[in-house]
Amino acid sequence: MPTFEITTASADDIRMMADWAHAEGWNPGLTDGQAFFAADPCGFLIGRLDGVPASCVSVVRYGSGFGFLGFYLTRPELRGQGYGSRTWAAGTARLAGRNTGLDGVVEQQPNYRKSGFRPVWTNLRYEGLAPVGVAPPAGVTLVDARTLPFDRVTAYDRLFFPEQRDSFLAAWTTTPGRTALVALSEGEVRGLAVLRACRTSSRIGPLYAATPEIARALVSALAATDPSTPVAVDVPDVNPAAVRLAEQLGLTPSFETARMYTGPAPDVDHTGLFGITSLELG
I need a labelling partner for 263 at 20 to 30 A (CA). Which of 3, 36, 93, 130 fits? Predict the structure, then answer.
């Protein structure tokens, strides 16, 4: 009989999980694994069949009461044999008692509903060549996020995410191969956006901004780092202004997921949420 074992993933396993995700069309960032590992080093599980990776899931804990599930994958040739469901059970057990979120692809949403997840909004991935040279509004300046005291960056992130995630955010904004910008007005943080290189379109996330005009300037400045490469933003339709902005930028929808939770939707600032951070970790 084949032996199936579920263990905590290694850093190399997490990079392999990103390769699997790319094969599914999710297009994770080239260096996302480093930030994912920093978020919760024990929050990634790998199922091995006779020692060979067969399935995976990420079940990252944030604070004392929140978790996020992602990377739920089984190798295509092994699907329908129960390995994925056993990995799912091990993962959800790690998040027991926590309000848990995920971004579910369309075909899996009925299964997630059966497991107690309820949809609260739809994420639409918008992609394309964004316009460059868009100036920020009067009184707003864009600066490298690494020049700002880090506690100001994390405090701003907490407006849009239900728990503190300092270790993750530190890696997410400073890992080589990405650009992080902050919008400042009268010394106050009014926007944050991170661009990371991917296999196809470069991804922008998070994209936070006090106004659509600030969000537009952030996208334009990030796109200017490589004007010939398309960008992609996962836009939550719970913020209609974000959808309008993506369309005004000339980006087109290419991919859809549902943000789902096992408990109440966290009380965050949806009006300033123009793009989620990642499909894998929220």
Answer: 36
Residue 272 has pLDDT above 90, yes or no: yes
List, in sequence order, every residue forming a beta bridge with 57; answer none if it has no partner.
45
Tell me: cis bond preceding 2? Omega within 30 of 0 counts: no
Residue 52's region, left for phi above 0, alpha for psi from -120 to 50, else beta, is beta
Three-state DSSP class for 156? helix
Q: Which residues contact 151 (CB under 8 A, 6 or more apart)?
A: none
Residue recorded with tokens 């990995």 = 87
pLDDT of residue 244 exceeding 90 = yes
Nearest C-alpha neighbor of 206 from the set 157, 245, 247: 157
Cα–Cα distance between 51 and 48 in angstroms, integer?
Answer: 5
Q: Are 240 and 122 in contact (CB under 8 A)?
A: no
Q: How many residues does the chain have?
A: 282
Of the pLDDT bands very low, low, confident and very high (cuts 50, 70, 90), residue 34 is: confident
Distance CA(1)–CA(63), nearest Å, equals: 40
Beta pairing, strands 273-275 & 202-209: antiparallel
Tokens 């009014």, residue located: 190
User: Taking phi first (over 0 means left), then psi (-120 to 50 degrees means alpha), and beta for anything else, what does residue 82 get?
Assistant: left
Q: How many whole angstroms separate alpha carbon 33 and alpha carbon 19?
A: 10
Share of the chain above pLDDT 90, in %: 90
Please say if the pLDDT value at position 203 is more than 90.
yes
